[in-house]
Write the structure tokens for this entry.
Amino acid sequence: MFTPRVPTAGNGDVSMKRFLRVLTLTLSFASPHSAQAQSVSDVIAFLMTNQSVQTSNFERDRAASETARDTITQALLVNLTSVPLATSSSGFLYRFNPQLGTAERATETFGGFFVERALTAGGGRVSFGFSTATAAFNRLDGKNLRDGTLVTIANQFRDEPAPFDQELLTLRIRTVTTTLNASVGVSSRLELGAAVPIVRLMLDGSRVNIYRGTTFAQAAGSATASGLGDVALRAKYQLLSAPSGGFSVATEVRLPTGDEKNLLGAGSTTFRVLGIGSVERGSVAFHVNGGALRGGVSNEWTIAGGASAGLNSRVTMVGELLGRRLTDLRGIELISAPHPTIPGVDTLRLSGGPTGQALLDALAGAKWNIAGRMVLDAHVRWALLDHGLTAPFTPTIGFEYSF
């Protein structure tokens, strides 16, 4: 079998160059200006653009690595800045009963988690609460980020099953997001709310070069960022009210309050408009949402549905489906091109794929009225499609109080 060689260097020269490269990288990481001291976006850029596989096409390599870097950054931003925030509506909703001359509970369930319901809280009703979610992302477009098998660039003979020279990327990304919610019923039809996310993002990555079965450390970096995310201001107005349901419209404005450099914020204002339909019969309720978002990371169309059932007066079970289509979100894929100087060899490069990705999440959980008007809730969310950045499960716990 033919063993590939760099045309302008012997084996000793290649080994010496690789030794010097590893030594240079080691010294650079010991410096206070290494990737470990940089922002999250800087670390991603460092890991994606640092390359040793020789392809004799610098411009194409750089374009592919920069596109892959932007794709990963955008996929992370989607999960941190444009994912639907938990509903700010109270679990206790009231409406005026003209026969009794007073307000009464409007529903026997405590509502959903992300899918809005058409009913509003009721005039003068105030609620506040918080939720905490943690996610450990392990796949990007179905490709494993944690097991060191993600190829970023490689050279491979066309008649061989595996590359002889390749670089592999490992990324460990974890987020913890605590969202503070509040809402107030201005009137029987109008409800105003706000959501304030506080995000902690931890990223650790490494890149290795495997040449003829020998592994060389290529790059490593880590970063941690925490702070305020993009604050959301909300309004919901009930257009149609009926004993068994209703229809409402809602708007949401997300302000660019998060740190864009550390991927805690989108860097621009986003606007969301939502139509909300609900049908509630006794202890069972169904809700459908549909709308559009403009600005931020990507324009998107959203559709969601949820069902809730009251097991008794204190416990409500909830299931939801959340669908989104982001017009600017790209997939990621390996592209192949003939090597310009080595016959019979193809160069594989990780780059961005087509734009326009659909995301579909499911969740299941419960809400428990522990005492008075205090509600404790918990749910688990997971991705149904291998698009974008995904985690096996995203557990969330929350608490709300209304008065």
Remarks:
- The two ends are 78 Å apart (CA to CA).
